[in-house]
Design a protein that fits this description.
Helices cover 73% and strands 0% of the residues. With 190 residues, the protein is mainly alpha-helical. Helix 3 packs across helix 4 and helix 4 runs antiparallel to helix 7. The longest helix has 30 residues.
Length: 190
């Protein structure tokens, strides 16, 4: 009877999940690319501070896809690969790797987008920042100083690096939160 009381789940360390992170990270990154292109084509680029309320729609779509991607990867790993059991650490790992893949896909596209598709993005961003600073009543010297400090943060290289880092962090956080709800620990062997 002892054998029947013990679950027959495989050893999680022997079951890879990288293919799930690659698949769902690529989907997440692909949707991110699609929303960026839609924003560019419709002149509602969510990266610009002048976008307004439509920025919230892009953010909601982005977060919904990120949550779906991480939760789908965790669910498939738990239910189809691990016999219905998964620990919190593995959920965080899957979320982080999925976010990292999405970040790398987004970074590669960001470099292409800023250097080939929308070459005037940095100038648009600077103009929008100047208009915003003028509306706040800043002097010309203050605006110049603020723009020179912000210049490094709107460069294609910095934006690509922040895509990778941001994707991993967001994936980690989603993996942690999803893992708190989706984890199912197997019983220890006797």
């Amino acid at each position: 009877m002892d054998v029947l009381d013990r679950p027959s789940a495989p050893d999680p360390s022997a079951v890879p999940f990288k293919h799930l992170a690659l698949r769902y990270g690529a989907i997440w990154g692909g949707v991110s690319i699609l929303t960026t292109l839609v924003g560019y084509i419709t002149d509602t680029d969510p990266s610009l501070p002048t976008t307004g309320a439509i920025k919230w729609v892009y953010m909601l779509v982005g977060f919904a896809v990120a949550i779906w991607a991480v939760m789908a990867a965790i669910r498939i790993d738990r239910d189809e690969q691990l016999g219905g059991f998964i620990g919190l650490g593995r959920c965080v790992g899957i979320g982080t790797l999925t976010g990292l893949v999405a970040g790398v896909v987004g970074a590669v596209f960001m470099m292409l987008y800023l250097n080939v598709i929308n070459t005037g993005f940095e100038e648009q961003m600077r103009d929008a920042m100047v208009a915003q600073y003028e509306a706040q009543g800043m002097s010309e010297e203050q605006i110049e100083m603020a723009i020179s400090m912000a210049g490094a943060f709107i460069s294609p290289t910095f934006m690509a690096i922040s895509q990778v880092f941001g994707g991993a962090v967001v994936g980690c956080i989603i993996g942690l939160i999803a893992g708190l709800f989706m984890k199912r620990e197997s019983f220890p062997a006797r």
